[in-house]
Design goal:
The structure is a homohexamer of 144-residue chains. With 144 residues, the first copy, chain A, is mainly alpha-helical. Chain A has one domain: Nickel-containing superoxide dismutase (Four Helix Bundle (Hemerythrin (Met), subunit A)). In chain A, strands 1-2 form a two-stranded antiparallel ribbon. In chain A, helix 2 runs antiparallel to helix 6. Chain A is elongated and about 50 Å long. The first copy, chain A, starts with a helix and ends in an 8-residue tail after the last helix. The interface between A and B is large, with 49 and 49 residues.
């Protein structure tokens, strides 16, 4: 059995559908919207923790770290937009550009906002992109 | 329904088990071994592509990009080791330190190696860590 | 007319008082397409120098540094797209998303290409964006 | 005359066709003092915005982002000093070392200062360097 | 006299034992616990300066810069742990993993703490590691 | 005994003169030429290893990693020059600017050179700076 097939088989057995998402299309070629999502979850958690705390230094560190996490969200989304998606995907999802533009704007706004509902909007936007990503790969994300 | 619960519920419906892994324990507190795994998959794909190509510049870029990806694997593993795991986990998994040490060493070796079998060893080591991670969170990764 | 001369000629004709472009609209708010252009000029120069050299290590360093410069082009373009441009600009320039998408794809391709003509395409794409940028600010770039 | 207007006026008078400045001398070889200037304009704008705001988190983000922008100013100036300028330039402009030293010190001080007049001093120092840079290239920056 | 020997000889004459510590074992191969220590000294100094100041912006910058310095401490320690130490060292110092784990945790905690005594604990932990490092190299660090 | 005194005392006992060099003058305020030196030692070691190897990929990685190490040398030297040294030091060492300029140029040249003798020149230049640095602090670096 070729090596790559073995990876996916072992991975599927253990992790379920997750690993199946990390394919390779071109150059280094491994894309996964989970990278943006994980950082966005961090953003929203920080917004929650900011609300729950009244320690001045802790809140300052929340603002500081959130700034970095939001930058990572933007970066991962930009890479996905520019590097993964092709002309054929735009034919099928004509609003793709706009989805990415708005999602990255939401990531930018999350630097200013301490409201977890704002972080949730960001996560929802990433979910929309993840749906298209997986459909474009012809793989259905199944419930556990 | 509180915001956080809603996230997980929506996410679980759409993505299956994946999102459930991104919890928050302390400070910014979102950890997920998928971050290391995605970069390691990139490392192994690059090793495969290196083997399949005879273009000198392309192979050079493989070596160059693999160096960066392997650094990211090391970074994500180190963060998990230092920031997520606690004394109580060491009681339960006494080989935890050694697993991380060897996994990060494998990531370092992947910079030198153009053999996908080496990349597979790295992925296997990350899988072992991911298994412990999920067990430590009391969440079972289910097959799809 | 040699390629480099052409770049400068075109640039001089179109650009004029570049510095006037560095305004501030929102948050830190200083945007200037010159940031992407300078890095793209570096990319094209490296492609030329690669062609002119037969020193193995020098050419390797060209590939390596070009990789970094191209990443900076992508970054500066992404920032401009997400952070500077607003909904009203999209009404006026409906192809804005596509221009940025293609320009960043060209930057990605410049990592693979050692052909200065490819770098020139990237510079041309950035010029198109710069034209819209300056028009959106209601400032005419005058010839010297 | 308000500070910002003064910047632009001075800049327009002195700079003219900035873009013509992006030449290539050695290795990747594209140098342009505009890179330092753009970041310094960002520094001064942030100092202004800090003064105009009484939102605690916004002001904190000003301090945070200004720190990064000032670092970029320092970096771009250092690169120019070490990589572009040659022994022959020092013969002609014996105070070159001192100009760079003081300009980078001003960039360091801008991290501590919330006063736009301090940022203006930094911009003036960069202008002095830009004047020498352009003269050294035998190209006159013309007014528009 | 071969080049390397000359370096050490000159260095020893001038700096004492310090330079002798910077050897090369594998790949780029130069390791020195001083890298982690210098950043940790910076962390503790910032904690002291935070205590001595009542300027709000200055204290904010302390928190911000300490965050970065602590990250560097973690990075340098992780590199030492993964890249320098070998299986044979673990045989001799079975608590090595634990020392590194606790030292990097202390570095993480120093982000939250403004207490110089906490920074001192971090420095002490790095000293313990440095002792083992030098002993493993068969070189005694002598008092001046 | 105040905390800081205790640090130096413990450190002096164990490490000899090394720690005494890490003082604090301004802001975060810990400076040590060892940071530049350690990276420069890495540069020279890589040049040696390049000469000793005939493995193509290994040599490529040497060039790649040396590029990064040389950048770190430049960075640490620039920081020392701009942030540590004051006007009074220039009075006493009028060639200070020139020493730094030439040392950073040597670091830049080490990217191109695979000759350990070139790396040795870089180390010598850093030694000259370190001598001045320690003399400026009124501390003699003693032999062991």
């Amino acid at each position: 059995m070729p090596i790559l097939t073995r990876v996916i088989t072992v991975a599927e057995r253990v992790v379920g559908v997750t690993t199946a998402s990390a394919h390779c299309d071109v150059p280094c070629g491994v894309y996964d919207p989970a990278q943006a999502r994980i950082e966005a979850e961090s953003v929203m958690k920080i917004q929650e923790k900011y609300q729950d705390s009244d320690d001045e230094v802790f809140r300052q560190r929340c603002v500081l770290i959130k700034e970095q996490r939001a930058d990572l969200v933007k970066h991962h989304l930009w890479v996905l937009w520019t590097d993964y998606f092709k002309e054929e995907h735009l034919q099928k999802w004509p609003n793709l550009h706009d989805l990415f533009w708005k999602a990255t704007k939401l990531a930018g706004e999350s630097k200013k906002s301490q409201d977890p509902a704002q972080g949730q909007q960001l996560l929802d936007a990433i979910e929309q992109i993840a749906d298209i990503f997986w459909e474009s790969k012809g793989e259905k994300r199944k419930a556990a």
